[in-house]
């Protein structure tokens, strides 16, 4: 099994804060606010990477360096050992210098994952109870605020 799985230390690091719309660029967000999603988790990011057919590993014990209270990160492998991509949809550009290519691939991965996270099944289940309680809210406000005399 060790021969099949490469060393994850060489995989791309993906912190949830990179695509969090609640964070500023100074706090660590790496994509535009219009493309970011609200409070993603490592599990959601890992599931989205699995949906994109990318090998990934969750590291729960790791913390984001700028905010050590943000626990967890995801390691993602974009390229096979022969240099081909696991998912060609992640890259639609020509190969450039290695550092630039990895940076752009990581950016494209962030955009794809940020697009998929709001449609994650766990998020859809969380939003259903909130919508049922909001229908009960207007019935309370229909009462008059005045006291009877």
From TrEMBL:
Subcellular localization, as worded in the UniProt entry: Cytoplasm; Nucleus, Nucleolus
One of the GO BP terms on file: SRP-dependent cotranslational protein targeting to membrane, signal sequence recognition
Main location: cytoplasm
Pfam families associated with the record: SRP19
UniProt entry tagged with the keyword Nucleus: yes
Region annotated Disordered, chain positions: 120-149
InterPro entries according to UniProt: Signal_recog_particle_SRP19, SRP19-like_sf
MF annotations from Gene Ontology: 7S RNA binding
Similarity section: Belongs to the SRP19 family.
Function (record text): Component of the signal recognition particle (SRP) complex, a ribonucleoprotein complex that mediates the cotranslational targeting of secretory and membrane proteins to the endoplasmic reticulum (ER). Binds directly to 7SL RNA. Mediates binding of SRP54 to the SRP complex.
Self-association state and partner proteins as the record states: Component of a signal recognition particle complex that consists of a 7SL RNA molecule of 300 nucleotides and six protein subunits: SRP72, SRP68, SRP54, SRP19, SRP14 and SRP9.
Protein's recorded name: Signal recognition particle 19 kDa protein
Organism, scientific name: Fagus sylvatica (Beechnut)
């Amino acid at each position: 099994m060790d021969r099949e799985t490469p060393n994850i230390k060489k995989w791309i690091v993906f912190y949830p804060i990179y695509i969090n719309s609640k964070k500023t660029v100074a706090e660590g967000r790496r994509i535009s606010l219009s493309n970011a999603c609200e409070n993603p988790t490592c599990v959601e990011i890992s599931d989205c990477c699995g949906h994109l057919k990318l090998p990934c590993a969750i590291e729960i014990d790791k913390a984001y360096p700028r905010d050590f209270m943000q626990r967890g990160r995801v390691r993602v492998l974009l390229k096979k050992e022969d240099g081909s991509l696991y998912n060609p949809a992640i890259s639609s550009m020509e190969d450039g210098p290695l550092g630039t290519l990895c940076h752009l691939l990581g950016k494209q991965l962030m955009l794809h994952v940020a697009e998929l996270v709001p449609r994650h099944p766990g998020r859809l289940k969380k939003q259903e109870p909130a919508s049922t309680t909001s229908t009960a809210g207007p019935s309370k406000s229909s009462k008059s605020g005045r006291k009877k005399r």
